[in-house]
Amino acid sequence: MQNPRLASRYAKSLISLAQELNQLEVVHTDMLLLQQVMKSNPDVVSLLKSPIIKADKKQKILAAILEGRVSATTISFINLLVSKGRESALAEMTTEFTRQYMVLKNISPVKITTAVALDAATLDVIKQKIASETTQQIQLETAVDAELIGGFVLEANDQLFDASILRDLKDIKQQFNKNVYVSDLR
């Protein structure tokens, strides 16, 4: 079920409740755990989306999976979703909760992809440089893609900065294919 408006409303409500109960950080940690559980175990997602399994069974199964791992507030929220028949959108809601949490806390996610893994000192320098360009806190995520050959790709605030060797090679190939000098002679 793809319903961003529904996910946004439930996430906003959960953030409000968590703030009211002074449990915002706890619930955020719970949402990250739920995202990890659903990503690593597709059977949980299938369970949530199954129209055959009754709501009370879903609640019992989810309680067994999450008991002792998430807060009572999160369990109550999940039970509410199941009782309202909205459990199939839980994955979207956890993602939206995380997005709204980051906006609320003024945190900007930044992803840097390199050809080889970067050491901690280099990551600190990169994080400081990015932080000097913005007023937001930086949450740096790293990825390794050997196809880049060298350089890096930086994604931040819906912008992409590609300074990789792969991109340079593609640009050169495109220029050779275009070859304005040959087309002028014909």
Characterise this structure.
This is ATP synthase subunit delta. It is a peripheral membrane protein. Keywords: ATP synthesis, Cell membrane, CF(1), Hydrogen ion transport, Ion transport, Membrane, Transport. One of its GO terms (cellular component) is proton-transporting ATP synthase complex. α1 packs antiparallel against α2, α2 crosses α6 and α4 packs antiparallel against α5. The chain contains nine helices and four strands. Helices cover 61% and strands 15% of the residues. With 186 residues, it is of the alpha+beta class. The chain folds into two domains: 4-103, Peroxidase, domain 1; 106-178, Dihydrodipicolinate Reductase, domain 2, CATH 3.30.360.
Task: Supply the helix-strand structural class.
Answer: alpha+beta
- CATH architecture identity of the largest domain: Orthogonal Bundle
**Text of the CATH class of the largest domain:** Mainly Alpha
| Structural domains: how many | 2
Count of runs of 4 or more consecutive helical residues: 9
Low-confidence stretches: none
The N- to C-terminal Cα distance equals 55 Å
How is the largest sheet built, in terms of strand order?
A: 2-1-3-4
Largest sheet, in brief, is: 4 strands, mixed
Record field, number of beta strands: 4
Overall morphology: elongated
Helix content: 55-70%
The radius of gyration is 22 Å
Keywords: ATP synthesis, Cell membrane, CF(1), Hydrogen ion transport, Ion transport, Membrane, Transport
GO molecular function: proton-transporting ATP synthase activity, rotational mechanism
GO cellular component, one term: proton-transporting ATP synthase complex
Main location: membrane
